[in-house]
């Protein structure tokens, strides 16, 4: 599958080069640069990126998309629509460059749509790249679907390294069958992991700690 690399873009094109090489962009892929304004410095950086792509690849499309930093809602909508239309691409998002508002727009867009994406940020001191857990973008939707009983189950699991279905049933005053059903649902939502099936024991995943 081809890759669509979406990059928040400002005056410095070096973030782009590193993201392109790190994600092994190949012919047939797309690069979409999100900017907060097409001023001269942005145009210059964009031309450098285009020249790099044209001399390195035969068939990689580069696109510059302008977002209004003062219209957050419209910017989020525009980014969400752009990402949803990338149906046949593996999506990689790099939030290392450009104005900070661009990163917030992309982050908000990803929480609103059901689209799997790899999201990375290069640290300002160039010491490394952090990849955000994909579950962080679906967490708001997941939370809206959790019953108070499941939330209480997670709260109890937070207090222990591992906890059995039997202990959870005792703590919640519920039968084990109900607790097992809750556990399998929470596993599907990637909030807990099952560490043993006989007896059934679970451990809270890192993302589950945010509930």
Brief write-up:
The chain has 211 residues and is of the alpha/beta class. It folds into 2 domains: 131 residues, Rossmann fold (3-Layer(aba) Sandwich), CATH 3.40.50.11700; 70 residues, Arc Repressor Mutant, subunit A (Orthogonal Bundle). It is built from 8 helices and 9 strands.
Q: Considering DSSP H and I runs of 4 or more, what fraction of the residues is helical?
A: 40-55%
Record field, number of beta strands: 9
- By DSSP (H or I, 4+ residues per run), the number of helices equals 8
Which runs of at least 5 residues are low in confidence (pLDDT < 50)?
A: none
Largest sheet, if any? 6 strands, mixed
Gross CATH architecture of the largest domain: 3-Layer(aba) Sandwich
- What is the domain tally? 2
C-alpha-based Rg, rounded: 21 Å
CATH topology of the largest domain: Rossmann fold
User: What sort of overall outline do the alpha carbons produce when their principal axes are compared?
Assistant: elongated
SSE pattern, N- to C-terminal: EHEHEHEHEEHHEHHEE
User: Main sheet: which strands, in order across?
Assistant: 3-2-1-4-5-6
β content, as a range?
15-25%
The overall pLDDT, averaged over residues, is 92
Strand-pairing-aware structural class: alpha/beta
Q: How far apart are the termini?
A: 34 Å
What is the CATH level 1 assignment of the largest domain? Alpha Beta
Description:
With 211 residues, this protein is an alpha/beta fold. The chain has two domains: 131 residues, Rossmann fold; 70 residues, Winged helix-like DNA-binding domain superfamily/Winged helix DNA-binding domain (Arc Repressor Mutant, subunit A), CATH 1.10.10. The protein has eight helices and nine strands. The strands form two sheets. Strands 3-2-1-4-5-6 form a six-stranded mixed beta sheet, sandwiched between helices. α3 packs across α4 and α7 crosses α8. The mean pLDDT is 92.
